[in-house]
Structure formats: C-alpha cells, structure tokens
Amino acid sequence: MLQDNRPVRAPSGLQRWRARLGELGPGVGLCAAVTALSIALQEGEERAFGHPYVEALVIAILTGMALRTLWEPSPRWRPGIAFSAKQLLEVAVMLLGASISLGAIIASGPLLLSAIIAAVFVTIGASYGISRLLGLPPRISILIACGNAICGNSAIAAVAPVIGADSDDVASSISFTAILGVVMVLGLPLLIPFLGLSATQYGVLAGLTVYAVPQVLAATVPAGLVSTQIGTLVKLVRVLMLGPVVVTLSLMAARFRDAGPAETGRRRFDLFKLVPWFILGFLGLAGLRSLGLVPDAAIWPITRTAGLLTVVSMAALGLGVDVRVIGRVGGRVTAAVTLSLALLLLISLGLIHGLRLG
Fold it and tell me: Pfam family example for this protein (predicted)?
C-alpha cells in the first residue's frame, strides 16, 4: 500500500470564516428569532396603548428565560448564544457613543446639569450600599445601582460586560427593574397634586427618576407639554451620564483584573488592557459626534442598530439564565431595587427644592 506523504493544507481564511459562521449560526439565529418576536410584541403594545409599557429588551430576556426553562440548548446552539451575549453586546455599547454630544450637555445649563450629575452619582453610591447591606454580591449591586441611577435596562446592559456580570445577574436586575419602571410610569403622576409640583418641577422629577425615554414621555404627557419637554431634556442628559460611568467602572474593573501587588512594579501601561476595546470605540464615536464628524442622518441607523443588537444580546442572556438562581436572590433584589428607587425619588425631590429648580 502506498503511503500518502503529501503535507496537509491548512484551512484558508475563507474556510475558517465559513466554519466559524457555521458554528455561530444556529445560536445567533435563535437569538434573532426571539428578538423578532419581542419587537413584534412591543409594536403591538404601541398600537394598543400608544407607547410600550414593557420594552422589547425586557420581553427578549423574559422570553429567553422561559425558553431556557422548557429546553436546555445543546452544544450546537451554545457558541452562537455565547457570542450574542458577549461580543454583540460589546458592539452595541460601542455604537451608543455616536449618540453622545457634548453640546447637549452644555445646553442644559450649569444648575440643572449639576443637579443631574449629583443625582446620578449619589444614587449609584447609595444604591450600591443598600444592595451590599442586603447581602447581594458586588456585581449585581453595581448593576442595580447603575440601572436605578441612569436609564434602567439600557444601563444594566451597557455596564454588564464592563464588570464581567453573568447572565443570572443581568436577568435578575433587569426583571425587577422593568417591573418597577412600569409602576413608576403609572404612579408618578399621582405625586403632582400630593406634593404640589409645578409643571417644570414635575418634568425634572420625571426626568431624574423614570428609567427609559419612552417611559418619561408616558409619565409626563398627562401633565402637559412643559413637563414633557423638561422631562425629556433631563432624561436625555441623564442618559449621557452612562458614558462617564461606564468608563469609570472599566478603569476600576481593570484594577481587579490585575495580577496583584507583586507585579505592579513590572507592569507597563497598556491602554487596551486597562480599558476594553468597546469603551475606546464608544469614546471615539462620542468625540466624532461632538466634533460634528458624525452626520445627523447617520445617528438614527447607528442607534437603531445598537438597540437591535442589545435586544439580541438580552435574548441570549435569557437563554443562559438558570431561573433557580434568580429565585434564590429574588427577595433581596426586589428589596434593593425598591429601596434604591425610593431613595432616588427623595434625592430628586431634595435637589428640586434645594436648588429651586422650576
């Protein structure tokens, strides 16, 4: 028998790409299907009620969790699900930088801007402290704190890859934050006569406390146009605080990734190890946007893409969630989110009256 001694050719770049796509395809396709269903349900809410009470992002993670409870994905599905949960989420966070503009921050005025910054950072610190006192782990405490202080589910999704939070942490935080977000939309207008708030004061309060921009609109429209305009402005500036917070957390997280004090003297500064690549991309796009180098026509497609990728990632996170883990921390998470939200309300009211806003 003749022996074939010809060298084995290494796969070409195209063959490797095809193999990688074949590996990721099933899982990514499953997450995309959950995303399509979630968006369709949100659009159904919008047609029925005029605005969504439960966003597609929340529907995706809950649908993924329900599917995971009924069926455990086999190894064929797992690579694509893991890719969607991590890499696609990182791309989404990077793209959000294109919506950040320094001009919008400066235009809000120094007093109101100071109030928003104070509310965000005081709430993050106090909410983190409450969660830790209730016995929650550091990562889920950070997620709850950022979700309450900035923009709910979107903040949780953006912060999660920076601090290395797992799917159970993200699912727990988003699930309970989403429920309270709906409660806020329905209950906040009741405070207008109870607290004697003016239209401007109520707009500031809604912008500082309600989680998502659509929810701010839902909470302020009943109070009139002035409240809606002020609430939307405050909320947008509050959302812009996500950038500095994420960068700060990435720098803090880098300290925990370091090997230890014995190697501190031997380490050289490496920006790409200190700050994740997608945070650098976020800052780069934010800088280009502030300089006017990202055209207005490109903002909607970029932010829309970021939103879609975030929903796909949430579907993937839901598919990786063990509901039993959430059950073990559910009571403490509920208490942490509720107490943090109550604290945010008190801080916001204190700033409104203390700084005489409105």
Answer: Cons_hypoth698
